[in-house]
Structure formats: C-alpha cells, structure tokens
Amino acid sequence: MHGDSCAEALPWQIAQTLAQAIAARVGRAPGRLPRVARYAREIGLRLGWNESRLRELRVASILHDAGELAAPVWVLAPEGEGRPRLAQWNPHVLAGAAMLESLGCHGEAAAMVRSHHEHWDGSGRPDGLRGEAIPAGSRILALADCLAVLPLFEALEALRRGTGAVFDPGMVAVVAQKHGEIERAISQGNCEPEAANWLEPVADAWRKDLLLNELIGVLGNSLDLPETLGDLDARLRKLIGYHSMAVWTPRENHLAAAYVSGEEARWLCSLEIPYGRGLSGRVAETRRAECNGDPGEEGEYPGDGTPGDGTPGDGTKVNPLRSAVVAPLEHRGELAGVLALYHGEAAAFRGGDLGVLLHIRSKLAAAVHNALKYESMQRLSTEDVATSLPNERALFLRLDAELARCRRSQGALGVLVCDVEAAPRLRRRSALQAVAAGLRSLCREEDCVARMGDRFVLVLDSFAECHLAEKRKRIEALMTDLNSAAGGESPPVVKVGAAFYPDDGGYADDLLAVADARMHQPSHDREAVEEPIPR
C-alpha cells in the first residue's frame, strides 16, 4: 500500500487508543506520544510535506514505540543494577514496525518506526543506516521525541549538540529557525484533539506495579534497620499517601517504635503500646491487618487543649491523625513487627493501600527480623552477657578512644581493675548484675565500667592517684553490702589495682597490665586530699 494506505487502514481514533495502551504498559505519561505526534506534524509542515505524507507521519509518530508492548518485564523495570534503558532494547523497533505492517501499514509509516533510533552518523540501531539512507520520517521522529520530552531550552541545546551525529543537520536548522512558530502552534492546539484518556487509571496502576516490584527488590539489601526502614518509607510514599509512618517491634510485653517519620513522629516515638491494646497492639495480638482504624487508640495525645493548637478550648486533647492502616509482620510464625501508616483525614485509606502492605509484608518481615537479629549480634559482640556491661573488646575500643582524647587535651585518666575473692554468692548472674549496677552508681556518666573475664574495669576521666583511697573505700563498702544482701557469711576480699595516664603508660595494654600487677600488691595509696573527686 502507498499514499493514504496507513491512515485508511488504521483510523486515527484506533491509533490514539493503541498509544494509550503503550503508555499504560510502560508506565509513561499518557500525553507524551500525542505530544510527539504534534511536534512531528509541525516539523513536517515546515519541511513542506503534503497532507498524505503528514498522515503517515502522524500514525508513525504516535505509534513509534508500539514495540514496547512486547517488551519483557526485566526491560520495563526501573533502570539500574545493570538493567538497560528501554530505548536500548533493540527488538522494540523491529516489533513496532512488524505490528504496523500487520495492521496494514506497509508503506512509509512502518519504515519510520523501524528506523527512528538510527543516527545521522551511522551509529544508531537496528541497521546502522547513515545520513539520507535513514527515512525522512524517522529523522523527524528523532527531533519530535526530543522536543516533546525536554523543556524547550534543553531540547534545542540537545539538538545542537547532536547535529551531524544523531540528528539531520538540515532538519535541525529548520527547527532552530522555526521553533517559535512550532511552539505557538503546539500551545494553540493546532492539531486534532486527542482521544479521551480512558486508559489513565491503567497507566497509573502499571506505574504503581513497577514501583511495588522495585520496592520488593530492595527490601533486605541492608542489615541496617534504620537504613532498611528509611528506604521503605521513601519508596512507599510513592505508592500510598500518608502523613506518618511507624514500624513497631516487639519487646517483653509491649511494642516500641523502631522507626517513625512524618508529622507526628515525636508523639509516636514516645509510645509504648501493650499487646492487645491500641490499634497496633491489637494487630500484633490478633495478627490481622486493619484498615482505617483510629490512631487515637495508640495512646494519649499530648495536646494542651488550648485554642490555636488545633484542639478545642475546653481542655480536650485532639489527635490530628484520623485514620490508619496497620499490618502485622510475621516471619516464620513469629511476630517481627507491625507496620502502621497514619493519615490526617478520616477513612483516607483504600483497599488497594492495604493490599500493597499485604503484598510486601512477608519480604519486609524477613528484612526486619534479619536486621534486628544482626543488631542483637552486634550488641552481644561488645556486651557482656551476664552483666550487660561492655565486654573486653568494647573496653579496649573505649580505652583507646579515651587515651586518644587525653593525648589531644593533655588530660589525665585512671584505670582501676577490681576483683572480689571469697564471695561465691557474688558470682551468680543476678548478683553480678547488682555489682555492675553498683559500680556504675559510683561513677560519673562519662566514665566507663566494663567486665574483663571475672574482673571489673573502671575507666575514670580526670582521676589521679590522690583519689584512689576514697574510691577503694567506696568499692569495698559496696561489695560488703551486696555480699550481705546475697547471704554471704564471711566478708569479701576486694582487690583494687590502679594505673594512671600518662605516668604509667600511654596505651591500653600498658595501663591494664600495671593495674593488674598492683591489684596483687599491698596498698600504698597517698592520703586522700580535700578536693572534689570522682564519685
């Protein structure tokens, strides 16, 4: 067929409908392809094309990406992680040309579609055509696609840079000279009206499906819980409208916030939700999701009830969050957490929003479970299991950091090693925890109390030898009291050895070795001086 064959075989209304199907399939704005068609027509007019050729060009331009309907999911997925751009997937131009031919477009239109990714210098696809060998309609399509997608200034700059390489220099010159006329014609709608955009909901659903697959793909990529949940938050907002988000994780008898964001993050952070109580507590207990529940059930909102803060003036406290969608996160039968989204409008969530949460919850639950387990292992690696004090590894890290600080500030530091003999009752786990708490009470907040083997180590800032006698008395009194409380009959033997920076060494190993040696020597402390000493 020639001349009007394509326009006759494929009425414009059908071509527009197919264009909307393409946009829906690839998650592209529905108006993009009609906009390309408008630019192509205006450029063709200024190149002197007659109406017959313009009709061929119009059909080719609105359907030049028809082959994208045949693209596999991996090509349509978001770019990155080694995935190619859709335009670089060669088969789409071949499939597009074949589709138009199957619809009766055997003339210029099919050739235009096949060659619209060819470059003037021969570096394009799929056939490597060069210069005038590229169909004129394909060269127009390349220009129109650029003008339709980019802002005018950027588009003209892109055409200038690509002249002689990607684009036909003669056609670029015409566009550069006539772009004012072209833009006025486009803005005045100097083309036939578009078909009704009945496929926009489909396009929106397809875009959301791509975003959802992308979200599921990234969940679990990190074992850092804040990073995992922050990424979830950023991506989930593209799928569901909400004002605040919370991920609650289980504690002994309640839920605590592992992550919060949004307008009421401070209030959510303050909550501890008992199992079975509140919206999220109920979901945690029943393991059943709820949609459009009342966020006020989560806990008392700290409004002051005064006019001007959005609350009534009668003292009533009003929570600005009005609805919530909440889903349990279960991993292998255990509760890993609860995901809650909150909104400022009543009944703001739809069934589709809940469906998104239910679709991602198994992957999210596994990610949360693994991140929490990793956090626990990290804590255990620097924490003494019996006392919850820093262990030997953490002690060396802390002591090295303190010594580095002292070297910079020319400060002083004391290291005390304590051991308790003849007190078996103080070796029990509950008693060890009491000893740890007691030693902490004898120190300032900035000091460090750690456990190294069976001994306790105190790292004391600005602590000198003149303070040692008083500190030893307090430690001995503490151990005696704890031993009596534990039912010990004979008094404990408390040994304390001390070393001081910089007099006894400049490194952690040196100070600990000196303190350990002195722990076994008779006391030779100086008398305590009348000056404030560390507790």
Task: Label this structure with key terms.
Alpha-Beta Plaits, Beta-Lactamase, six-stranded antiparallel sheet, alpha+beta, 3 domains, elongated, four-stranded antiparallel sheet, 47% helix, 535 residues, Hypothetical protein af1432, 19 helices
Structure in words:
α2 (about 10-25) packs parallel to α11, α3 (about 30-45) runs antiparallel to α4 and α4 packs across α7. The protein contains 19 helices and ten strands. A hairpin with a 2-residue loop joins β5 and β6. The radius of gyration is 37 Å and the shape is elongated. The longest helix has about 30 residues, at about 350-380. By secondary structure, the protein is of the alpha+beta class. The protein has helices at about 5-10, 10-25, 30-45, 50-60, 75, 90-100, 110-115, 135-150, 150-160, 170-185, 200-220, 225-235, 265-270, 280-285, 350-380, 390-410, 430-440, 470-485, 510-520, and strands spanning about 245-250, 255-260, 270-275, 290-295, 325-330, 335-345, 415-420, 450, 455-460, 495-500. The relative contact order is 0.06. The chain folds into three domains: about 5-195, Hypothetical protein af1432 (Orthogonal Bundle), CATH 1.10.3210; about 220-380, 2-Layer Sandwich (Beta-Lactamase), CATH 3.30.450.40; about 390-520, Reverse transcriptase/Diguanylate cyclase domain (Alpha-Beta Plaits). The model is unreliable at about 80-90, about 190-195, about 305-315 and about 525-530 (pLDDT under 50). The strands form two sheets. Strands 3-2-1-6-5-4 form a six-stranded antiparallel β-sheet. Strands 8-9-7-10 form a four-stranded antiparallel β-sheet, sandwiched between helices.
